[in-house]
Amino acid sequence: MLQIHDLTITLNENLHKILEHFTFTLNPGDRAVIIGEEGNGKSTLLKLIADPMLVDSYADYTGTILKGNGRLGYLAQELTEKEKAKTVYEYLLDSGAYDFLDARETAAIAAELRLSPEQLYSDQMVGTLSGGEKVKLQLSRILLCQPDILLLDEPTNDIDIDTLEWLEQFLLSCRLPVLYVSHDETLIERTANRIIHLEQVRKKTVCRHTIASVPYRDYIDARSRALSHQEQVARKEHAEHKKQMARWQQIYQQVDHDQGAISRQDPHGGRLLKKKMKAVKSTGKRLEREAEDMAQLPDLEEALFLSFPPVSLPSSKQILDFSLPVLETGGRVLSREIALSVSGNPHLAIIGKNGAGKTTLLRQIAAVLLNRIDLKVAYMPQNYQDSLTLQKTPVEFLASGGTRDEITRARNFLGSVRFTRDEMSHTAGELSGGQKAKLFFLKMVLDQNDVLILDEPTRNFSPLSNPVIRQILKEYGGAIISVTHDRKYLDEVCNQVYELKPEGLLRLR
Question: How far is it, in rounded angstroms, from Cα 213 to Cα 382?
Fold first, then answer.
């Protein structure tokens, strides 16, 4: 059992609280998911529970975290460079993963993870593994150490659809209590039985949290009803207050006019008007106080005011005629006889197993299309730093010309996706993954591209923001060529789906 009592987490840099008075108990059978907008402290909370030293450099906390005598199995969102430089065998050996179980038990865990026992003793460098292989390696290390509680930070990042479905079954059948962070709505809908929602409201100046012991879809539906009611009440109160203020303004102006027009020969009338003005001002102050207590319009993380300008591509327009005899990386052949022809404005997705070469293929497609002079093409890589100068601020990234109009426009667009003024002045390297993703989307909107090349476009958006992003892409009038493992994105955005296999690209629909 994990018990947290009255936990408050404060960032050292600006003394901003990202979590306040948080009390929670994780019990056997719990599969609790932490959701919330990018940068709201989800990973920080998991790191703090796993080991306070992981956040010591940037955050402080008060409150108690009681773990008892249990062992925590923590899956980090990113492996360290030191870990990537090890072989698989060294990574497991150095973490003590071989200290608890015999060979037969180790083989059983490998089978549970759909790995061969030999893979757990491999001399392959950890850094050369695919995203899904890295996740399975971390899970094998955790399970070999026989934990009592699982803490999983984005275990769904970079894993293929088969592995996602396996992970769902693993979580559902796992006897251990699990606390996890994920952006994959399908996995959350199918596995979570408790929801922890971290929010930053009032222009990200106030933190709040909600704990609900219900499935995710029930939580979202109840939240939607509550927010709809809050909005109705707020609009009604604001409309009534506006009427009261209009009436008050008329009375104030009339009394002010009468005071200016009254003759000095009528001191009694002047005293009466002075008393009346005092009462009018008192009423005005009361109305101001009442305004502070009125219901507020909902401050929502999914309130992203973003849309692509109209794009019109003729159905006969040849976008891509791509062929590749051999797809390889690092001397390893991944696929052969790849051919892809794209015309008009399809929304196309490429899927495939981890390590199949999807990102490698998309880079080569991007290299071809970015050289076209008859098309405006944007490329959003999986690793944002490939196209994003981390030393630039968001404003500098969007307003590359540096003119006053460009800067104003960039600030307005950043505000439309909930960037605060402070966040606009941070360097890109200081931003969360979701904020960097927003920058790419804003850049694509501003550049009015005909073709979007997107590598895992939804992977860093929160479960609440992702439906908005999918709708924006669904309505986009240009062509989309993407790689994804997002099952809702495939269903809602894509009208063409290909699978990358060793024998080439196979059209699924």
Answer: 34
